[in-house]
């Protein structure tokens, strides 16, 4: 009964939001020069949103920002009114993930809702694609079908995004991912490294292993990870002299750790060998400074291929995660591999020791998923968003 009341109240709040939006649309014209940058899971500008935002600096466009830290955080009344006003009057609404407000927002004629998405490539099935996995996913975000334009990182994966969002293929454009342009600018790479070591001088003489897995769980609010699969003692014994391991938990998992819904391991006894950098907002910078990436089914593999450094896939649950009853992948797992694959800790330690670069596999991977990311993606994305 209590859960039902909560759901009714939640529905009521969103329908009131919709009515407010309709009232604003009746009294305010659509501003052709206004662009709203929307996110329900970030506090500061970053990712593709930042690339587009910065590219429009000095233009005639008015840029407004509507961010909140986490989907579970409720906006104040003032913030809700601001959101309703900016969504209702902006010619363009740009987002990089789902937003609950879009589900109930009445889209105006000639208004564009553009999905920039947060991760390039096409790895884990999401959106409507998850219907094919047999997984109990509940209700799919209805706001997906309201998108008028979507960008991707490669021509060969446009169909994945069209399927996931329930859209016609012609609404998906392979412009490349704007934020990947940074990887082609040496000034950016040098600046990131210099700034990082200024802030963390104790890491300058160490090789950095970045451990950044995705979360386990059907939806972000249930995000977890099997920390028992990490043998911290064994890693410390093997690598502590020359290395440091930085953990960057997925934002959904980190939010649950902060909220004490998930208990993360303690690192105190390892004398600084393990560092939790989950607070570090821009993981792109961590990809730049690390020497080796350890991940699993995370979209980080797509950004990371542009940096030409070793990668290890730690997939202790490969069969469960990729199988019919799991999350499911768009392509066979082998398609995504351009480094060593480890299924347990002994294999992980061996793979880290080798540091292999799979050159030919990298080329195939790039052509499949990232061939539109050539350092000029921001320019193409801006042209597509504003002029079609």
From TrEMBL:
GO MF term set: CDP-glycerol glycerophosphotransferase activity
Regions annotated as coiled coil: none
GO biological process: teichoic acid biosynthetic process
Residues spanning the signal sequence: none
Keywords attached to this entry: Cell membrane, Membrane, Teichoic acid biosynthesis, Transferase
Location(s) in or outside the cell: Cell membrane
Main location (coarse class): membrane
GO cellular component, one term: plasma membrane
InterPro entries linked to this entry: Glycerophosphate_synth, TagF_C, TagF_N, Teichoic_Acid_Biosynth
Keyword check for Disulfide bond: no
Superkingdom: Bacteria
Pfam family, one: Glyphos_transf
The keyword Membrane appears for this protein: yes
Membrane topology listed for this record: Peripheral membrane protein
Family per similarity comment: Belongs to the CDP-glycerol glycerophosphotransferase family.
Protein name as annotated: CDP-glycerol glycerophosphotransferase family protein
Organism: Sharpea porci
């Amino acid at each position: 009964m209590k859960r039902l009341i909560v759901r009714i109240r939640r529905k009521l709040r969103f329908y009131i939001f919709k009515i407010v939006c309709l009232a604003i649309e009746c009294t305010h014209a659509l501003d052709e020069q206004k662009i709203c940058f929307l996110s329900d899971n970030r506090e500061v500008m970053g990712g593709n949103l930042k690339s587009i935002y910065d590219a429009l600096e000095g233009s005639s466009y008015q840029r407004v920002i509507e961010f909140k830290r986490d989907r579970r955080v409720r906006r104040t009344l003032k913030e809700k009114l601001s959101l309703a006003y900016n969504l209702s009057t902006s010619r363009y609404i740009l987002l990089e993930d789902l937003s609950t407000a879009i589900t109930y927002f009445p889209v105006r004629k000639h208004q564009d809702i553009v999905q920039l998405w947060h991760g390039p490539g096409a790895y884990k099935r999401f959106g409507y694609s998850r219907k094919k996995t047999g997984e109990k996913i509940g209700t799919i975000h209805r706001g997906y079908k309201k998108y008028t334009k979507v960008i991707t990182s490669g021509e060969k994966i446009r169909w994945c995004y069209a399927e996931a969002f329930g859209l016609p293929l012609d609404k998906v454009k392979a412009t490349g991912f704007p934020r990947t342009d940074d990887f082609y600018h040496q000034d950016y790479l040098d600046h990131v490294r210099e700034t990082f070591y200024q802030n963390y001088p104790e890491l300058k003489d160490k090789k950095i292993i970045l451990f950044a897995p995705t979360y386990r769980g059907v939806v972000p609010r249930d995000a977890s990870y099997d920390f028992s699969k990490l043998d911290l003692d064994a890693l410390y014994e093997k690598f502590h002299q020359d290395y440091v391991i930085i953990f960057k938990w997925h934002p959904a998992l980190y939010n649950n750790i902060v909220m004490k819904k998930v208990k993360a391991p303690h690192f105190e006894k390892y004398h600084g060998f393990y560092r939790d950098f989950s607070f570090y907002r821009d993981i792109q910078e961590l990809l730049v400074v690390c020497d080796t990436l350890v991940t699993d089914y995370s979209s980080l593999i797509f950004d990371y291929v542009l940096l030409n450094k070793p990668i290890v896939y730690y997939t202790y649950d490969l069969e469960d995660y990729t199988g019919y009853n799991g999350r499911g992948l768009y392509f066979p797992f082998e398609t995504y591999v351009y480094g060593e694959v480890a299924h347990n800790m002994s294999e992980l330690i061996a793979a880290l020791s080798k540091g292999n670069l799979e050159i030919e596999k990298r080329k195939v991977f790039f052509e499949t998923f990232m061939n539109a990311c050539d350092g000029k993606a921001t320019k193409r994305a801006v042209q597509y968003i504003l002029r079609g």
